[in-house]
Amino acid sequence: MDGVGIGALADASLYGDPGAHTLKHILEKKGGLPLPHFESLGLGHIDPLPGISSQNKPLGSYGKMSEISPGKDTATGHWEMMGIHLKKAFATFPHGFPQKLISDFIEQTGVGNILANKAASGTEIIKELGQEHLETEFPIVYTSADSVFQIACHEERFPIQELYHLCEIARRLCDSYQIGRVIARPFTGDNPSSFKRTADRKDYAIALPEPMLLNKLQEANINVIAIGKIADIFNHQGIATSIKTKSNLEGLRASAEEIEKLDSGLVFTNLVDFDQLYGHRNDVDGFFQALQEMDQSLPKLMHALGEDGILMISSDHGNDPTFPGTDHTREYVPLLVYGKKLKSKNLGTRASFSDLGQTLADIFEIAPIQNGKSFWQELS
Predict the structure, then answer these.
(1) What are the φ/ψ torsions at residue 233 (nearest 5 degrees)?
(2) What is the distance, to the nearest Å, from the Cα of residue 135 to the centroid of all Cα atoms in its chain?
(3) Distance (Å, whole) CA 87 – CA 289
């Protein structure tokens, strides 16, 4: 669940996020409306949450995980889950990218010039500069509070493959600046009121610094199916099959279908709408509706597991839509684990996101990953 945090980490003030709590603040704003299936798995036992009871006997195990790596972005969180602990945060550029990087990008792509070069909301920047982009055909290059080099282009001016080519050049240039991701942001529409980003976003992550769980699973011939933007985040390492999705609901449906088809292996899904559509846009209502949609999908996912399957639900960072600004928030992430044959346990506060990956290594009976403490023995 991309961007679904459950309370500020102890060092959140270093990131400007003291008091952040994505789930609690959304539920407060919604007056404690229920999420019954999340509740049945033990969500209310992790932290007091309006409308979510902690009096039930959970079907699953529950806890929360701390992030050790510096940062609060997608790549950092996902990589830590799979065993990588970064020592240094990716570079951010709140005042725009260095002129040398922009000049090299213009020269190597041959685009003539670029628009923006500043930190901005992705939806607002196309409203502001989309018309000028249509007239000049100059790409819109912008960043955010995250370590991202984003390129927005209208699909009639830059067909998708051309935009992806620009991003591939940018990725090579961004490596020496330690920029975490280059993101293609195609959009359509005729004017500022109709400009709309499409689902053909593509992320180009910086090279992973070391092997991680997915590499080990591949070496052991264990099938890994990536749904959503997972493959992009891990540069397709260790992944047998990648399935792109256009919404959380599509991702949830694809997950259930792949789980039902799979005899043995890992289905790894990122549900980006929480973060991309609602967290970054301070849309509490939309965020809660997405939580409701997932809540309603949980019975189908749980049924698809059969007798031996295991469902793990977590997140990569927070994105509190009630918090000032539109940035991610440095938070604990929830941990819910369900399987018909598993015990129901309080897994407590885990020291690292890597505890999840280490547990998966135990489940698949492969060599341990480099970081994390498994909780498999507590459940089995």
Answers:
(1) -60, -35
(2) 34
(3) 36
At 207, list the tokens.
């090279």
CA–CA gap between residue 339 and residue 307 (Å, rounded): 8
CA distance 241 to 250: 16
Our count of domains for the chain comes to 2
Tokens of 38: 């999340």
Q: What pLDDT shows up at residue 146?
A: 87
Say how many C-beta atoms besides its own lie within 10 A of residue 183's C-beta.
Answer: 25
Domain extent, residue 211, equals 12-90+207-379
Please report, as a single letter, which amino acid is at residue 92.
T
Q: Is the pTM of this model over 0.90?
A: yes
- CA nearest 119: which of 106, 128, 110, 111? 128
Query: How far from chain centre, in Å, is Cα 209?
Result: 19
19-45 core/surface letters (b: 16 or more CB in 10 A; e: else): ebbbbbbbbebbeeeebebbbbbbbbb
Share of the chain above pLDDT 70, in %: 100
Kindly write down the DSSP assignment for every residue of 91-149, as one continuous string. Answer: P--TT---HHHHHHHHHHHT-S--EEEEE--HHHHHHHHHHHHHHH---EEEE-SSSEE
Assign residue 180 the CATH number of its domain.
Answer: 3.30.70.1250
Q: Give yes or no: residues 80 and 137 share one domain.
A: no
What's the average model confidence in pLDDT over 65-83?
97
Where is the domain boundary, 154, 177, 205?
A: 205
Give yes or no for a contact between 35 and 53, defined as CB atoms under 8 angstroms apart. no
Reduced to 3 states, what is the DSSP secondary structure of residue 198?
A: coil
DSSP three-state, residue 170: helix
The CB-based long-range contact list for 107-115 (8 Å cut-off, 24+ gap) reads: 108/169, 108/173, 109/139, 109/166, 109/169, 109/170, 111/137, 111/138, 111/139, 111/166, 112/137, 112/138, 113/138, 114/138, 114/139, 114/140, 114/141, 115/139, 115/140, 115/141
Residue type, 107: E
Q: How does pLDDT run across 249-275, given as a tens digit for each residue? A: 999 999 999 999 999 999 999 999 999
- Confirm if 121 and 145 have CB atoms less than 8 A apart: no
Q: CB neighbours (10 Å) of residue 165?
A: 14
Q: 63, 3, 46: which is closest to 352 by C-alpha?
A: 63
